[in-house]
């Protein structure tokens, strides 16, 4: 799924060493892939907020003191905002998603302050995994298992 990214990355970064300048380029060619990965397979499943007063929402009462948990997987797999939601399509992120339809790092004043750092870490990790190892799926049949995060049914061989 990272094939196109890896191809471009190999052109830009011929060695495993990443300079600061190349980090910026790596970010610009790869960040949409990271966002789509986080959409398909959100690392954190949910956050929660406590109602500080009684709140009425769409005919429901959320009593003061109760907690509300937005489930990121459900939010990120809403076909209204993400058509063909099972398809890995990083071009979805060429335009910014509508507010509160995509929140792998939470939302509002307590949103993750480490989100940019985390995205960069993921890109650098993918760069090293792609430039120093090779992979093949263990068996050809397609499939995903949830444990609870989705992984390929029989995993990968790597060397
Ligand atoms: C892929 C990696 C990461 C993911 C998916 C992630 C996700 C999240 C989420 C969902 C929250 C809760 C936000 C909310 O309730 O609205 C959070 C909070 C937080 N994250 Fe991250 N995070 C990641 C990496 C990091 C890193 C690298 C740092 C620090 C360097 C960090 C620091 C924090 C802190 C301090 C909070 C608490 C913020 C607050 O309560 O005000 N996170 N993160």
UniProtKB/TrEMBL annotation:
Keywords: Heme, Iron, Membrane, Metal-binding, Monooxygenase, Oxidoreductase, Transmembrane, Transmembrane helix
Topology term for the membrane: Single-pass membrane protein
MF term (GO), any: heme binding
SUPFAM superfamilies per record: Cytochrome P450
A GO cellular component entry from the record: membrane
Stretches that traverse the bilayer: none
Subcellular localization, as worded in the UniProt entry: Membrane
InterPro entries xrefs: Cyt_P450 (IPR001128), Cyt_P450_B (IPR002397), Cyt_P450_CS (IPR017972), Cyt_P450_sf (IPR036396)
Keyword ATP-binding: no
Biological process terms in GO annotation: sterol metabolic process
Family recorded in the similarity comment: Belongs to the cytochrome P450 family.
Name of the protein described by the UniProt record: Abscisic acid 8 -hydroxylase 4-like
Organism: Olea europaea subsp. europaea
